[in-house]
Amino acid sequence: MIVLITGASSGFGEAMARKFVNNGHRVIAAARRSDRLEKLREELGDRLLPVTMDVTDPSSIADALARLPDTWKPIDVLVNNAGLALGTEPAQHCSLDEWTRMIDTNTRGLVTVTRAILPEMIARNTGVIVNIGSVAGNTPYPGGNVYGATKAFVEQFTRNLRADLAGTGVRATNIAPGLCGGTEFSNVRYRGDDAAAAKVYEGTVALTAEDIAETAYWVATLPPHVNVIQLEVVPTCQGYAGWNVRRNVPAPGQTK
Ligand code: NDP
Ligand code: 8X3
Q1: Whole-angstrom distance, CA of residue 177 vs CA of residue 238
Q2: Closest protein CA for atom 5 of ligand 2
Q3: CA–CA separation, 61 vs 78, rounded Å?
Q4: Which residues line ligand 2 (CB under 6 A)?
Q5: For position 74, what pLDDT does the model report?
Q6: 7 touches ligand 1 (CB under 6 Å)
Q7: Which of 170, 224, 172, 212 shows the shortest CA–CA distance to 83?
Q8: What is the pLDDT of residue 252?
Q9: Is 86 helix (H, G, I), strand (E, B) or coil?
Q10: Contact 224, 169 (CB under 8 A)
Q11: Could you tell me the distance, in angstroms and rounded to a whole number, from the CA of residue 219 to the centre of ligand 2?
Q12: What is the pLDDT of residue 62?
């Protein structure tokens, strides 16, 4: 199979690239940091093709895909993994620029790449689109605001893809991971504050990028008539927390 993975320079994407290549498949590894992709190619060899791509820039996506050698063009599996969270502040304190970056990467980037790849999958009547959502897409939490909303979009877009794809050989899956350590996700979210990022995983046995790579590989290698639509994957230390109730706060309209 030929597998295009966005966000392959780190974390889940990098682990997925290893998983697919080590199982005999070819991987187009896309991200902005080409030096990291080049290192991955040195490790994994010619079955990995590094491709510089910024998913927030439609012309970068179009150029990267146009430049693919013909033998790499029939993409069997698209993993829309590139994404990020920025901040955990309450909505009223968030930066609009950071909100826009999350929307541009996690939602607009994901649909732009999908729209570019899907027609060819339909023409061949085969293909798998694996979107990487998050448990934050259906379970709100304080400070999750726009990040959670982008992942809700990913989940609902996947379900709507499934509606359009019924009767074709093209499949669509949303994998929604929970707490997962060992990637750059929290370092990015806390804007380079590595101590704050490390605290997120303190005292836990979190998921690893390899766990998510295993899940994506399983989804993509099921028999061709089987479409897993939605998968929530969490570590055993994680569960739902329910509604939060704030006590002894000023009544609405009062400030003291
Ligand atoms: P990482 O930060 O380790 O990896 C994110 C990847 O996305 C990097 O390879 C980065 O590459 C790429 N990326 C970011 N922006 C762009 C862009 N504009 N264009 C192209 N690539 C981009 O995080 P994870 O591996 O943990 O996260 C991967 C996905 O999983 C994300 O969508 C995240 O929201 C989701 N997720 C993560 C969870 C976790 O706890 N870790 C849990 C649930 C979901 P580069 O900077 O080189 O462009
Ligand atoms: C990442 C998981 O819970 O930090 O998508 O939002 S969470």
Answers
A1: 11
A2: 134
A3: 13
A4: 134-136, 144, 178
A5: 98
A6: yes
A7: 212
A8: 96
A9: coil
A10: yes
A11: 21
A12: 98
Contact (Cβ atoms closer than 8 angstroms) between residue 139 and residue 26: no
β 77-80/127-132 pair status: parallel
Residue 80 Cα to ligand 1 middle (Å): 10
- Ligand with smallest separation from the Cα of 9: 1
Produce one character per residue of 202-230: b if its CB has 16 or more CB atoms within 10 Å, e if not: eeeebbbbebbbebbbebbeeeeeebbeb
Residue ranges of the chain with per-residue pLDDT less than 70: none
| Rounded-to-integer distance, Cα 159 and Cα 174, Å | 8
Q: Residue 4 has what pLDDT?
A: 99
Candidates 247, 16, 1; CA nearest to 132 is 16
Question: Which structural domains are found in the chain, ordered by start?
Answer: 2-233 (3.40.50.720)
Positions marked catalytic: 147
Residue among 185, 188, 201 whose CB has most ligand 1 atoms within 8 A, to mutate: 185
Burial (0-12, 13-18, 19+ Cβ within 10 Å), 86: buried
Cα 136 to averaged position of ligand 2 atoms, centre (Å):
5
Question: What Cα–Cα distance (Å) separates residue 39 from each residue in 134, 149, 166, 171, 244?
Answer: 28, 34, 39, 31, 45
The pLDDT, as a whole number, for residue 61 is 98
Contact status, residue 132 vs residue 109, Cβ threshold 8 Å? no
Check residue 115 and give its pLDDT.
Answer: 98
- The C-alpha atoms of residue 255 and residue 124 are separated, in whole angstroms, by 62
